[in-house]
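Name: N-acetylglucosamine-6-phosphate deacetylase
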Amino acid sequence: MAADPGARGTARQATHHPHPATSGTPTVLSGATVVLPTGAVQDSRLTIDGTRITPTTPENAQVIDVTGHYVIPGFVDLHNHGGGGASFTSGSAEDILKGIHTHRLHGTTTLVASTVTGDMDFLSQRAGLLSELAEQGEIAGVHFEGPFISPCRKGAHAEDLLRDPHPADVRKLIEAARGQARMVTLATELPGGLDSVRLLADQGVIAAIGHTDATYEQTVEAIDAGATVATHLFNAMPPLGHRFPGPIAALLEDDRITVELINDGTHLHPAALQLAFHHAGASRVAFITDAMDAAGFGDGRYWLGPLEVEVADGVARLVEDGTIAGSTLTLDRAFKRAVTIDGLSVEDAVQALSATPARLLGMSDRIGSLEPGKDADLVLLDADFDLKGVMRRGEWVVGPQLR
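Structure predicted for N-acetylglucosamine-6-phosphate deacetylase:
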């Protein structure tokens, strides 16, 4: 089964209830190129029974002819701050669900909700709200991006709310998330950074190096302490230098690190993306959105935490100084760009958007690939890699749009 990227999209018609093809009746998607862990298989078929992919086809299965299309695994986003006009940091539960649904319309069937820097008590309260949604299965957990980051590389975070990553503070946020904390981004060179990395590793929470001013040597030390992810590699960290290679070289060269990339054409030059893939390979690259409220919604004025953001032509920047403030990316666009512009194979793009992040979350037994027994999370694409359908747990979020 071969898959390719989804399309940039305006909001698509959502089916909030099961599509007739899956309302209790097993479904067969027939004739597509299906992207499997072993590669793309042309003129293939995929059978869904209930919420799962099944190896056999029941006699009463309903067949949908999707010849000329690709079927690929649903996208997994490790780093996402909102969408559809809703913020995961400040919105109500209803707002958050709206943002989650916006990204589902664009193929993201599994999403980790990210917060931005705020007061510790406020972040603890948000962690409690988000953990409820995780317990309900709406999100895959919580990612804290800030406040434990470097003021030298703060990006779109409020400097007056930043603090050193002392283990007691890190533990407070983990405990507030009630077992649903998945990742914490740290500037590990700051006081308490290495001890906090060790704490996170002991607690089974991903320690991510990001918004950092660390040297190469300090980054190596953090990796040895247990850090396993690079938060949006290249962005909000010192550039690669020939005498002072900084964190980028350390993060790319170490097989223990998975690197996040924002493939929107704004955050990275195509050559930087190619450099990352050359050194890390698809098994160590996770495409993310780092999306904020405007994703899937449109240009205008928004708030990212306490900071005002202007979105123009799809690019989000802080009003106060023009700093890039997250993205308006959706993962179908990241996928399509990877294949049609960056020259990645469909298989590598699938791995970076589905299999690698699923593995990092410890969810490979359920999601990230199209295999019998796993959740029926999938994206249907046409020959131009435009999104034509999204299924999550056996139900159509976007019903098949076939000619």
